[in-house]
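TASK: fixed-backbone design
INPUT:
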């Protein structure tokens, strides 16, 4: 009987379960961070692309105005499925040749898992994109 207890005390069968239990929350937090920050990066790239398209439209569009560029960019982001609210600002679309056309977009991206799982992490990020082109 003593021999059995000595062998049981030296055994390491339960240590793997304890280590797994301790490291699983850290691993899952790391995986969720990669997924959510990747999603935020994708949303940022959607904003950058939409601001470029809007500035290009404003730079080439003869007789247009800023409200048409803003509506175009908002529609583009809506069709692309941007997940947050968007504020689009355009200036210079109705200007003459050589003037600058500026399209600025601010959007809100939610971090639903990380914001609730990790203390101190905000539940949303404000993403910005600005493009400036010369009116042709």
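OUTPUT:
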């Amino acid at each position: 009987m003593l021999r059995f207890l000595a062998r049981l005390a030296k055994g390491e069968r339960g240590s793997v379960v304890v280590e797994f239990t301790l490291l699983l929350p850290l691993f899952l937090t790391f995986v969720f961070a990669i997924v959510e920050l990747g999603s935020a990066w994708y949303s940022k790239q959607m904003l950058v692309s939409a601001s470029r398209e809007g500035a290009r439209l404003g730079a080439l569009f003869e007789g247009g105005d800023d409200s048409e560029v803003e509506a175009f960019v908002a529609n583009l982001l809506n069709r692309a499925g941007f997940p947050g609210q968007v504020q689009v600002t355009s200036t210079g679309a109705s200007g003459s040749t050589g003037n600058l056309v500026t399209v600025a977009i601010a959007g809100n991206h939610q971090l639903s898992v990380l914001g609730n799982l990790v203390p101190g992490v905000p539940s949303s990020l404000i993403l910005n994109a600005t493009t400036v082109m010369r009116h042709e």
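COMMENT: The chain has a mean pLDDT of 85.
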